[in-house]
Amino acid sequence: GPEELALLERLLGLPKGNKYGVQGERKVPVLQTNNGPGLTGLMTIAAHLVKQAKKDQLLGSTAEEKAVVQQWLEYRVTRVDGGSSKEDTRIILKDLNVHLEDKVYLAGNIFTLADILMYYGLHHVMVELTVQEKEKYLNVSRWFNHIQHYPGVRQHLSNVVFIKNRLYTNAH
Amino acid sequence: MGFGDLKSAAGLRVLNDFLADKSYIEGYVPSQADIAVFEAIAAPPPADLYHALRWYNHIKSYEKQKASLPGVKKALAKYGPADVEDTTGAATDSKNDDDIDLFGSDDEEESEEAKKLREERLAQYESKKSKKPAVVAKSSILLDVKPWDDETDMAKLEECVRSIQADGLVWGSSKLVPVGYGIKKLQIQCVVEDDKVGTDMLEERITAFEDYVQSMDVAAFNKI
């Protein structure tokens, strides 16, 4: 919600001053603007902030990258925020682990808004994973550890520890 | 440190394992460390070494900016897992062959001086070739770990075995093999450095888990 958008603003180097509210039961964030009803929705506001900060490359450069970024933003809002049962979480981690097998970032070789919002969205999940689970979803762990070390991303969020010497090497 | 011989399949496997939980050779940004290792590799790693391949393709995307990446390129022996040596250097020795004229000059008649110089160089080449870097002796061992009965929790037994940590010991894949009467034995692979870990030590530590392990045998032992 608004707290996450504040983190994003700081990461983007935007001055403070934007006013946020929430709407409805599901607490959808709203960015209040001078004229009109305001911008609604996490993805919409986040993309708007990126453009405000003139960091459009965070939305992807090629058509394919842009599409992949949108795919994961949508995933974040519909699957990560939408479902929260153990089974939902297991499926999300499995999806991500497969997708990240051959990629450093969600969109391939470049860091984008998809990495940022998926990191914030999954932080509460990663914090709770056991050592075995972190090894099971090895690619997710690698990606999460990389993103939390990306300058400006983690801020006050807790650092999730991933042990260096894996216990279950070659466990696939 | 090092990855073994990066021009060999074994070296690429070490690199692959190293990169399973890392995006870069050092730290969290691409640096000269990645370039140093990238340049030591002859071709893209095979598809089954997918961590190494992921890293390779990612570093390749920085090809144009490689000169401006942070850090300083160091010798391969400065990177990678602490308990492995770099033996890729063996390949670079042969590069010097090009400088040594082994078959003499075009001129059929060699002057005494030229002959002496040539023989001197040959002697140098020979002595350099004989000083190859030491290779760490390793063995691949397949162990059979037998439980007391068919009610023993094999998952817990495996966890106990894998919890055994030692310098020069790396656990590999495993499987459960039925031996009759509903009992299954755990067959597990490991790679050991011969001068650090022996089968006696492994047997002692594995059979120490008395609640789960009845006995341990060496099913296969191969020098790598």
From TrEMBL, chain A:
<dbReference type="GO" id="GO:0043517">
    <property type="term" value="P:positive regulation of DNA damage response, signal transduction by p53 class mediator"/>
</dbReference>
<keyword id="KW-0175">Coiled coil</keyword>
<keyword id="KW-0539">Nucleus</keyword>
<comment type="function">
    <text>Positive modulator of ATM response to DNA damage.</text>
</comment>
<dbReference type="InterPro" id="IPR053836">
    <property type="entry name" value="Arc1-like_N"/>
</dbReference>
<dbReference type="InterPro" id="IPR053837">
    <property type="entry name" value="AIMP3/p18_C"/>
</dbReference>
<dbReference type="InterPro" id="IPR036282">
    <property type="entry name" value="Glutathione-S-Trfase_C_sf"/>
</dbReference>
<dbReference type="GO" id="GO:0005737">
    <property type="term" value="C:cytoplasm"/>
</dbReference>
<dbReference type="Pfam" id="PF21972">
    <property type="entry name" value="Arc1p_N_like"/>
</dbReference>
<keyword id="KW-0648">Protein biosynthesis</keyword>
<keyword id="KW-0007">Acetylation</keyword>
<keyword id="KW-0963">Cytoplasm</keyword>
<dbReference type="GO" id="GO:0006412">
    <property type="term" value="P:translation"/>
</dbReference>
<feature type="domain" description="GST C-terminal">
    <location>
        <begin position="48"/>
        <end position="167"/>
    </location>
</feature>
<protein>
    <recommendedName>
        <fullName>Eukaryotic translation elongation factor 1 epsilon-1</fullName>
    </recommendedName>
</protein>
<dbReference type="InterPro" id="IPR010987">
    <property type="entry name" value="Glutathione-S-Trfase_C-like"/>
</dbReference>
<dbReference type="InterPro" id="IPR042450">
    <property type="entry name" value="EEF1E1"/>
</dbReference>
<comment type="subunit">
    <text>Part of a multisubunit complex that groups tRNA ligases for Arg (RARS1), Asp (DARS1), Gln (QARS1), Ile (IARS1), Leu (LARS1), Lys (KARS1), Met (MARS1) the bifunctional ligase for Glu and Pro (EPRS1) and the auxiliary subunits AIMP1/p43, AIMP2/p38 and EEF1E1/p18. Can interact simultaneously with MARS1 and EPRS1. Forms a linear complex that contains MARS1, EEF1E1, EPRS1 and AIMP2 that is at the core of the multisubunit complex. Interacts with ATM and ATR.</text>
</comment>
<dbReference type="GO" id="GO:0005634">
    <property type="term" value="C:nucleus"/>
</dbReference>
<dbReference type="GO" id="GO:0017101">
    <property type="term" value="C:aminoacyl-tRNA synthetase multienzyme complex"/>
</dbReference>
UniProtKB/TrEMBL annotation, chain B:
<dbReference type="InterPro" id="IPR036219">
    <property type="entry name" value="eEF-1beta-like_sf"/>
</dbReference>
<dbReference type="GO" id="GO:0005853">
    <property type="term" value="C:eukaryotic translation elongation factor 1 complex"/>
</dbReference>
<dbReference type="InterPro" id="IPR018940">
    <property type="entry name" value="EF-1_beta_acid_region_euk"/>
</dbReference>
<dbReference type="GO" id="GO:0005829">
    <property type="term" value="C:cytosol"/>
</dbReference>
<comment type="subunit">
    <text>EF-1 is composed of 4 subunits: alpha, beta (alpha subunit of the eEF1B subcomplex), delta (beta subunit of the eEF1B subcomplex), and gamma (gamma subunit of the eEF1B subcomplex). Interacts with elongation factor EEF1A1.</text>
</comment>
<dbReference type="InterPro" id="IPR014717">
    <property type="entry name" value="Transl_elong_EF1B/ribsomal_bS6"/>
</dbReference>
<dbReference type="Pfam" id="PF10587">
    <property type="entry name" value="EF-1_beta_acid"/>
</dbReference>
<feature type="compositionally biased region" description="Acidic residues">
    <location>
        <begin position="96"/>
        <end position="112"/>
    </location>
</feature>
<dbReference type="Pfam" id="PF00736">
    <property type="entry name" value="EF1_GNE"/>
</dbReference>
<protein>
    <recommendedName>
        <fullName>Elongation factor 1-beta</fullName>
    </recommendedName>
</protein>
<dbReference type="InterPro" id="IPR001326">
    <property type="entry name" value="Transl_elong_EF1B_B/D_CS"/>
</dbReference>
<keyword id="KW-0251">Elongation factor</keyword>
<comment type="function">
    <text>Catalytic subunit of the guanine nucleotide exchange factor (GEF) (eEF1B subcomplex) of the eukaryotic elongation factor 1 complex (eEF1). Stimulates the exchange of GDP for GTP on elongation factor 1A (eEF1A), probably by displacing GDP from the nucleotide binding pocket in eEF1A.</text>
</comment>
<dbReference type="GO" id="GO:0003746">
    <property type="term" value="F:translation elongation factor activity"/>
</dbReference>
<feature type="domain" description="Translation elongation factor EF1B beta/delta subunit guanine nucleotide exchange">
    <location>
        <begin position="138"/>
        <end position="224"/>
    </location>
</feature>
<dbReference type="InterPro" id="IPR036282">
    <property type="entry name" value="Glutathione-S-Trfase_C_sf"/>
</dbReference>
<feature type="region of interest" description="Disordered">
    <location>
        <begin position="84"/>
        <end position="112"/>
    </location>
</feature>
<comment type="similarity">
    <text>Belongs to the EF-1-beta/EF-1-delta family.</text>
</comment>
<keyword id="KW-0648">Protein biosynthesis</keyword>
<dbReference type="InterPro" id="IPR049720">
    <property type="entry name" value="EF1B_bsu/dsu"/>
</dbReference>
<dbReference type="InterPro" id="IPR014038">
    <property type="entry name" value="EF1B_bsu/dsu_GNE"/>
</dbReference>
<feature type="domain" description="Elongation factor 1 beta central acidic region eukaryote">
    <location>
        <begin position="102"/>
        <end position="129"/>
    </location>
</feature>
